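stuck on this one:
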Amino acid sequence: MISKMIRYDIVLFAGEQERFVNELRELGLVDITTTGWEPSEGDRAILLEIESINKAIETLSSFASSSEYNASAMVYASGEEAYDSYKEAYAQRQRISQEIARLEKQAEEIEPWGRFSIEDVERLAARGVNMRFFVAQPAVYERLLEEPIDGVTVSEIGRSQSFVYFAVITTDAASVAIDGQEVRLPAMDSEALRAEIKRLEAEDKALNEVFSRAAASRDMIAQECGKLKEQLQGLMVNATAQHEADGNLLILEGWAEADTADKVDALLSTYPNLVYDRRDATIDDIAPVKLKNNKFAQLFELIGAMYALPKYGTFDLTAIFGPFYMLFFAICLCDAGYGLVLLLVGLMLLKKGGKGMRQAALLSIVCASATVCFGFYANSFFGVAISDFAPVIKFLDFQNQFFSISLAIGVVQILVGMAINIVMKAKLFGFTSTFGLLGWFIILLTGSLAVGLPVFGLAIPGFDTSSPVFYVLMGIGALLMIVLNNVKRNPLINIGAGLWDTYNNITGLLSDVLSYIRLFAIGLSGGVLAQVFNSLAMGLSGMGDMAPGTPWYGYIVPAIAASIILLIGHGINLFMSAISSFVHPMRLTFVEFYKNAGFEMGQRAFDPVRKMNK
């Protein structure tokens, strides 16, 4: 559900703004509207600094979990010193990394030239012995040897698969044309370059102590970032507030949850020169949204937030789509063994992932548990039929039965969405505004009960397509849908609009229902691939062709080969199936369900001003 909000319109003296905002931070219960804020140049500098510090904290957190981290490193005296030291060390590490990359490339290029001394080359040149260095293809070099030039000595220095590296020695200053690419030797040979690279690597390793100290001090760095965020927050409040009386008065718009509004009132009453007005927020307000759900539904807020929060005053669909999403995930993955693997991953994340991963870990555990249950019912454990080991249990024949079941699930979710839409419209605009949608709901529900239920052997006694009740309900639905879709409009116009809506709704609902076939298709494809990898493992390793009486040691090599194939094959299939199981139920939720439920997006989440360094 959406937490009820109270709107505050506050007027105070501009001189009290800083103290007032600081007390709001300490309270941490009021969201001050800063919509429309445009950052100045100074504000942008603060934003960039905040982004830089956040990246630094992220980098240091990763470093703290690496083998280079020294857990006994001393912390810095302040967050500012820690961050400045980190920035300097980070810039130095970047410079060293670039220099090492340059030297490694240079060392690789001059490796064929072997050891040399550029000083010796220069001394020979001073005595009239000139040395030039060339690179050419072997065929070109061979021609050069076959056609010698007077006064010129050609000597091979090194050779690779594609090129010959050679020197041309002359005793005069005359220029000699050589068919090849002339190169200029660097000041050091490859061994000297490698030594320089090792020196730089040691210098880079020494920086780990600075990074360790900064990583140990990252809480203090986060406090410095919090101070900047508070400073930016104050600038945003001042920039978006309405200034009156030559700037002496400020008018602020704030929001608080109804459950905590008494604490806000108590704070505001301590300001004798402050005037405020409070009222309940309405759907017409651009109110911030905060969801308030039970522990199970809270897990799926992570999924809903990937699309958008609901508009204030409408309906929070999280608790409704949550069970559907869990079921859809299990259907798409459709294997008890894969579910167990994800369950173990979720438990590991819950134990070692930290506080930030708790919600994702719990969501993984819930969806994986549903997958284990459904995968068992669908008779699949890593592609192996469970019925081979438990023939007395009646399993679901997924391949032959689930196509129609997936369509039925789609109809159920669409009907739930339409029912929510009807209730919400009736609440906001009155019951008569729902007649058109209610007519469609009655027709779809009646047709599903009369035609759909018998397909699954669940017919309602005395209710089918030939019963009078069926025709009465269909007639009521048609009347509401075509004639009374807008009671304030001319009936003839309603009929025309109703017929046009009929065409649009039939095509739209048909498309929506057919979209749920993806549940069947994804679950089936994953199961078939699992069986294929099992067959490949048995066939390619020879495990399936082992003769009876083969000694135990004869199974060792085939078993290892089969295990490798199974591990790689099922790993790929699990990875691809898990992605599909995550994405496609989300698509069904955000497109088919949200559309039929009349979902409206909110503009922003509830974000009260608060102390950032706590």
